[in-house]
Write the structure tokens for this entry.
Amino acid sequence: MNRKYFYITAFCLGCILLSAFITGDDYFTITAADVKLEVPKGFPQPVYDFKNNTPTPAGFTLGRKLFYDPILSKDSSISCGFCHQRIAAFAHIDHRISHGINGQFGLRNVPPLQNLIWQTAFMWDGGINNLEVQPLAPMNNHVEMAETTANVVQKLQHNKEYVAMFKAAFGDTVVTSQKMLRAIAQFTGLMISCNSRYDKFMRGEDTLSANEKRGLQLFRDNCAQCHKEPLFTDNTYRNIGLTYDTAFKDSGRVRITGDMKDFMKFKVPSLRNVEMTYPYMHDGRFSTLKQVLDHYTQSFVGVPGVDPRVVNGLHLTLQDKQDVIAFLKTLTDKDFLYDHRFVDPGMRRN
Amino acid sequence: MLRRTLYITLSIAALVAAMSFIAPSQAKLVITFNSYVGNQLLKLDSATYKNELGQPYTVSKLRYYVGNLSLITNEGTSFHSDEYFLVDETNDSSKQVTLRNVPPGNYTTISFIIGVDSLQNCSGAQSGALDPANAMFWTWNSGYIFIKMEGASPLSKSPGHLLEFHVGGYKAPYNCIRTVKLSLKNSLQIANGNAALNIKTDLSQLFKAQHVIDFSKISSVTDFHNSTTIADNYAQMFSILQ
């Protein structure tokens, strides 16, 4: 009798192990349902609508491989995913400034990648005008990936695995920058965060604590004009009184527009998953949300160019700040951070 | 039997005549861009030229975008092509721009832009002449580089005395798209078959047509600084070569 139980138990354990192996493979398999774009309830229509680039499982899988492959860099040391870490909503957790090849430093803090198809422009200064051409910037930047677009295309064309994946995704074996960029856009464009506790609260599926609710109200009264719900940005550029850093010499959007009115203006970042995307600001100068709120409660009267919405300083007590921070943490979206579709396929055990 | 053959032949002839009536035959126009410095043919690297101020310079690279080609007749009818062409001095075939399906006509004006229009600048990843792998695209401030002229001048204060004119930008007030309109003196008659047109690209005009460029002051343009000054010059760099 005991032996019988042993066999049954062993059989069950075997089944569990086997299914673990099988689901292990499924974990990285992208299905048609995985690439279907659904505009979350309450979100506006996307800016990037995939009109000429309908996501497919093969295209998304190719984009995912490219995103995590250091082949995009000159010495095969840096991939997109090197700086854009999934667990930090694709920001670089606990890093002030982006890293590049040969241990070089970039100029700015790595922005998270989420809800990109609702962004009108990319980068802290809005220099990039279309999601598809965004990857060309780090790829060609001398202190980031330090490659040329033409060379990356050549390397991919000479790689049999990539040639097969390009054929599966786009129907032929000729690798072009357009196909490469569209595949990456399929992958990054579907990084959508819409399932935080805040979202569930808004949909009536979850509750917030009294402090979190108070924080939400304070947020709406003080912050939401620029950090506009539900994306928590209004896609504008603003000077919030950050001092010009003479070491970095980063003057912000004026570098793009040539208009001195844009001196020290940077993009209003989304605050989704903000708990995970520290440190904060374009140069990562603040390491905690408390420091960020302390910045906003200063007066900037007399400092030229500071946005009228913050120039007088926000009036928030310590308790107010704690409640706003409690609310901001409800924007953490674990469904997004642990979404199997965005996991590095290199993690697969071979 | 003979009669039947005659009928068939006649009906085929009638059909052909009818078809040609419905769709008049169209021609291929080959426009060749010939690079000069003043009246000398441009030679990359080996020749030394002088600008308006007598400052010597050499040329190592010349590439530019030509687009929105239009042909206009005296009656105002026009032919338009949406295609973009990247003219590269090192590649002879790129200097020959072919327009297909040009309807017959007496064309008196040709116009085109130097640059890439704003729509194409904002439409994401492009292919062909507009492939960003052609290294005519700014990756940190999205947009095409309309013209690249590189070389050297002892007067240049850039490292290695280099000259580097990379001009582009589609947004006001630094819009560098320029329309070139040239009258065809002996109007271009396009009938059936092929036609050809030769255009002179006079690089010396890049440094003098409207604004005289002093290489000791401006030796490098790589963003909006001085970009429209150079654009105003290249707007007048082209003429019909007789």
User: Anything to note?
Assistant: The beta strands of chain A are 237-238, 266-267.
